Amino acid sequence: MKTQTLTREQFIEQFTARQEQERANAAAMRKDPQACATALWQIARGDTGGGRAASALLLSLWNNHFAANMRDVMGNLDIKHTEAALGLLEHMGGGCWLERYLTDEQIMQVINQWGEFHEIRRERT
Fold first, then answer.
1. pTM for this predicted structure
2. How far apart are the first and last CA of the chain?
3. Fewer CB within 10 Å, N or C, the chain?
4. What b/e sequence results for 78-101 when a residue is b if at least 16 CB atoms lie within 10 Å of its CB, and e otherwise?
């Protein structure tokens, strides 16, 4: 297989084009808060930095006993999940709770995966 050698400018151009395509693909999801919540819930069930960040956001929207560090959340999500977080936040307002988009069972999965981590972290600060 022949490999292609790119100049620095070509690489940057291709990389930027891929990022713009990812943002465009996520734009449709951003308009649907159910899709945003589901995307964040799916990653929050995993054991990654993105999962930790998504779980912090979801748990902070679920009750008033936990507040996510939004700088940390956004810094640890990829483009798709950052757009999902922004989309969900756009739709969360007065009288709108996460229970509208995720079931108690889904939230319990996030709590089982990350609750102890966030509780210990909260006690340290």
1. 0.75
2. 54
3. N
4. eebbbbbbebbeebbeeeeebeeb
